Amino acid sequence: MILVTGGTGFVGRSVLRHLSAAGFQVRTLLKPAQRSPRLPAGVSVDVALASLNDPRGIRAALVGVDSIVHLASAERTGNPAALQRTDVDGTRTLAEAGAQAGVRHLVYVSHLGANRESAYPVLRAKAQAEEHLHIAGVPHTILRSAVAFGPGDAFTTWMAMFLAAVPFVFPLPGDGSTTLQPIWVEDLATAIAWVLEDSSRPSGTLEIGGPEYLTVAEVARTGPAKR
């Protein structure tokens, strides 16, 4: 059984589809909420209700689980307090519970450039989360990914909406020359499934990105993903 956190998110929905199609038994961790979860249609998954900061709930969710895919993050908010609570403290709780439960492999999706000294709160939080995996001692693979894109993403879709609302005006970070290596979300989900299938790989860090290097200005000119 594989436990997926963040299964209702942009990347998580693709991962649930890929793992289910590959024949894995999948359980997704959902935070209790009044709204209906955005699970992918037609995909059969078990559901466990618990917050990442609820050690007892996490331990219950891990019963019968041998692998974890950890995607849950507050990066869309950009709020330092939310990042600390979800990405840092939540990862520590999950990693410690996973180690105690004897989980054989935890795959954590981090970001290229994760660093405690980064100027960006998300990259600082990802680096701290990675450290908690090392400290907890659960066998793990850290997958440092470039920004993922696809229908409904938080990157190209936001650009398209802004350009539609304010034609000919778009605020680019710096001078727009920052280079990105965006990865198609379905390719990222496939890579996660491959890492899970390779039982000899736990406890290492891999970096992954798409085949093209594009500046922020080029991404803005290209528009939202339509694949």
Q: What keyword list fits this structure?
A:
seven-stranded parallel sheet; alpha/beta; Rossmann fold; 227 residues; single chain; two-stranded parallel sheet
Could you explain the architecture of this structure?
The protein has about 230 residues and is of the alpha/beta class. It is built from seven helices and eleven strands. Strands 3-2-1-4-5-6-10 form a seven-stranded parallel sheet, with helices on both faces. A two-stranded parallel sheet has the order 7-9. The chain has a two-stranded antiparallel sheet with strand order 8-11. The relative contact order is 0.14.
Instruction: Please give the alpha-carbon distance between the first and last residues.
Output: 31 Å
Give the total of domains: 1
At the third CATH level, what is the topology name? Answer: Rossmann fold
- The first-level CATH class name: Alpha Beta
Strand content: 15-25%
Which geometry do the CA atoms define? globular
Task: Give the fraction of residues assigned to helices.
Answer: 25-40%
Low-confidence region ranges = 157-173
DSSP E strands, number: 11
Oligomer: single chain
Write the layout of secondary structure elements.
Elements (H helix, E strand, L loop, with lengths): L1 E4 L4 H12 L4 E5 L15 E4 L5 H7 L5 E4 L9 H22 L3 E7 L9 H16 L3 E6 L2 E2 L6 H10 L13 E2 L2 E2 H13 L6 E5 L5 E2 H7 L5
Helix pairs in contact: 1-6, 3-4
